[in-house]
Amino acid sequence: MTLPRFELFKPSTLAEALDMLSATPDAMPIAGGTNLIVDMRSGKLQPGTLVDIGGLRELCCIREKDGHLLIGGGVKIVELLDNPMIERDVPILGKMAQSFANALIRNRATVGGNLVNAAPCADTAPVLLVLDTQVELMSTSGPRWMPLCDFLVGAFETKRRPDELLTTIRFPIPPSRSAGGFRKMGLRKISCMAKVDVAAYVERDETGHCRVARLALGAASAAAMRVPEAEAALAGQSLTPERIDEAARWAETAAQPRAGSEYKHRVVYGLARRILTEIASCPAGTKGEAR
């Protein structure tokens, strides 16, 4: 199916892009276009105007500031694979990127676009949720920040207004006594759309006890979600098999798959238990990644 007719604007600055979105009610931003073009071809979306933000330098950097890592909304998934700050501080992001679609999609898809599209199976969302991520939404009126867990409302639904761009995500740089893990279950290894995503993050104290725990699910409900009951089961405790099993069962219970996909409850349980067991085996005094 051919694309519907549309006007294409190509701003040279972020400010110019925001002016275009504000002045054109039916305009939609496009960066990688890996979801938007597909939806336009199918007739699901028919915007009269596209604003190409893919080349805006303001959206394409990864940097540190005030103990946080900041990633521009226009950063491509492939850029998470070889960035030294990602590799050093949040290897869980690199692991997610390795399993994201295929090489062609990774070279086009952006972090911001994946979050704004808000597909239930968006791979970036569970990992960024366990990193306690905030998103910056920018309009001509200025920026506003909100937690990612509040930004994601439902399937293909967020709190972004039509005149806003997701310009930056930020999260605290994990301390040395931390480890994270990400597991994805799909029907095949190549170009796989997630059937279930599970991500976990744990910080431990000097004694090896869990100080902070976060666990998130993707593709198991209408929107990626944290599991506070599982997190509470681990906080302040040793990562014993019993505690891990309890947290995994909370995750299993929290999953809300569509009718006909009830098998995902057991998949969530298995993946959560596996990740947390791997995290428990990481040395407590060093930053690590569940393997």
The CATH class assignment of the largest domain is Alpha Beta
Return residue spans where pLDDT drops below 50 for at least 5 consecutive residues: none
Question: Which architecture of the largest domain does the CATH hierarchy give at level 2?
Answer: 2-Layer Sandwich
The chain-level structural class is: alpha+beta
User: What is the ordering of alpha helices and beta strands?
Assistant: EHEHEEEHHHHHEEHEEEEEEEHHHE
Major sheet details: 5 strands, antiparallel
Protein model, in words:
The chain is an alpha+beta fold. The chain folds into three domains: 7-52, Uridine Diphospho-n-acetylenolpyruvylglucosamine Reductase, domain 2, CATH 3.30.43.10; 60-172, Uridine Diphospho-n-acetylenolpyruvylglucosamine Reductase, domain 3 (2-Layer Sandwich); 178-281, 2-Layer Sandwich (Enolase-like, domain 1). Helix content is 31%, strand content 26%. Helix 9 runs antiparallel to helix 10 (241-254) and helix 10 packs antiparallel against helix 11. The protein starts with 6 loop residues before the first strand and ends with a strand. The relative contact order is 0.12.
Walk me through the topology:
Elements: E1 7-9, H1 14-23, E2 27-30, H2 36-42, E3 49-52, E4 62-65, E5 68-72, H3 84-89, H4 91-98, H5 103-106, H6 111-117, H7 124-130, E6 134-139, E7 142-147, H8 148-151, E8 152-154, E9 157-158, E10 165-172, E11 178-185, E12 196-204, E13 210-218, E14 225-226, H9 228-234, H10 241-254, H11 264-280, E15 288-289
Key traits:
31% helix, 3 domains, Uridine Diphospho-n-acetylenolpyruvylglucosamine Reductase, domain 2, 5-stranded mixed sheet, globular
